Amino acid sequence: MLDPSDITWELSADAWRFVQAQPRQFQDHYSDIKGAFQVDVCRYINAVGGCDQKAIGISPLGGTVGGGKVFKVRVAVPGGGKSGGLRALVVAYCASRRVVVASVVVRRDAG
C-alpha cells in the first residue's frame, strides 16, 4: 500500500503559479489541503490500481504516451462548499511512483 511518502510529488510551473497567486486564506490552509489531496490520490491508486475507474472525487481522463494515467481530482478547500474548492489535473506514473499536478483551477458553487 502506497502512502504519500512513497511517491515523488511534482507541481508543474502552471500549478505552482496558481498556488502562489492564491489569497492568504488559501495559503494559511495550504499544507492541510496538500496533505489531504495526497492521501486521496494514494487511496485512489491503492484501491483502483490502474487509475482507470471513477471514484468519489476522482475521474479518469485517459493516458499519456509515456504511460502516465491522467485524471482529475476534486480538492476540498475550507469554505469551498460541496461544489466549490479546486479541481486538479493529475498525471500519475504508477510504476515509477511519481505524480505530477499539471493544472489547478478554482471552482465555485454555482448557486
Task: Report what the structure shows.
The chain has helices at residues 13-20, 24-48; strands at 8-11, 58-63, 69-75, 86-93, 98-106. It has 111 residues and is of the alpha+beta class. The protein has one domain (4-106): YaeB-like fold (2-Layer Sandwich), CATH 3.30.2310.20. Strands 1-5-4-3-2 form a five-stranded mixed sheet.
CATH superfamily: RelE-like
Q: Could you give a short account of the major beta sheet?
A: 5 strands, mixed
- Oligomer state of the chains in this structure: single chain
Mean pLDDT: 83
Strand content: 25-35%
Per DSSP, the total helix count is 2
Succession of helices and strands? EHHEEEE
CATH topological fold name? YaeB-like fold
What is the rounded distance between the termini?
A: 39 Å
Total number of β-strand segments? 5
- In spatial order, strands of the major sheet run 1-5-4-3-2
Which bin fits the share of residues in helices?
Answer: 25-40%
SSE arrangement:
Blueprint: E1 8-11, H1 13-20, H2 24-48, E2 58-63, E3 69-75, E4 86-93, E5 98-106
Parallel strand pairs: 1-5
Antiparallel strand pairs: 2-3, 3-4, 4-5
Task: Give me a quick take on this structure.
With 111 residues, this protein is α+β, with helices and mostly antiparallel strands. The protein is 30% helix and 31% strand.
